[in-house]
Amino acid sequence: MFSFLVSTQPALRHSDIEQTYCLSSISFFDATTSNRIGFRGQHAASFLQQQGLEIPPQPNNAVEMRNGLWVLRLSLTEFWVLDVEHQHTEAILELEKAALNASQVTRLYCQHSSAMFVLTGDACPQMFAKVCAVDFQPDVFTPGHIAQTSVARVSSVVVNTSQSAFKQTRFFILSDISSADYLWHALEDAALEFQQTIDKERFSDN
User: Which residues pair with 120 in a beta bridge?
Assistant: First the structure.
């Protein structure tokens, strides 16, 4: 019987966002085609731990593993695993296979249902203030925190993935893929005063 393992075909995922480039203090790129997978269920947390993944202790928190994978906890029973750098396709596939036989664990196809953007730059919190009611200033919204909110009237998951060791301010935005083009241009407009850089080339060959 055929098993639809979406992680085995990352090359078939695509994004129609048009890229442009200019010098800026804020950069953002379209990571919609990057590897990711979600799990939901009463045993989702223990399942991920059994697979060797670190999980955040509380909902609306995220952790970065040493291998670069990000684990997002969106509720007590829902988790997303993000491979932003496209370095762990096989690991994502193995997770997906293992979930087939796991009790009370349901796969979520967030790699197809959601768009993903990565924003970098110290002015990101100020830019967010123009399109979102949440205060993303670093002393309020610290690294590892998640906000499930509205960005430019689009329901979104915003993750602070800033790295204090490198003094880098960075956020992930995940939202419904049907609104990806609208949200991309809304962010573009919000970032105009910061002369945004939009960089998609990094993922164009994946």
Answer: 27, 170
Please state, in angstroms and rounded to a whole number, the distance separating the CA atoms of residues 57 and 76.
Answer: 9
The residue with tokens 């979406």 is 6
Q: Number of H helices and number of E strands within the chain?
A: 5, 11
d(CA 193, CA 200) in angstroms, rounded, equals 21
Plot region of 144 (φ>0 → left; ψ -120 to 50 → alpha; else → beta): left
Q: Angle 85-67-56 (CA atoms, 0-180°, nearest 5)?
A: 100
Give pLDDT tens digits for 104-161: 999 998 888 999 999 999 999 999 999 999 999 999 999 999 999 999 999 999 999 9
180-197 pLDDT, tens digit each: 999 999 998 898 877 645
Give which of 167, 168, 133 is closest to 149, Cα–Cα. Answer: 133
pTM of the model: 0.83
What does the block give as tokens for 75?
A: 């509720």
Nearest partner of 40 among 30, 49, 48, judged by Cα: 48
Query: DSSP label at 68?
Result: S
Provide the 8-state DSSP code for 178.
Answer: G
**At residue 57, what is the residue type?**
P
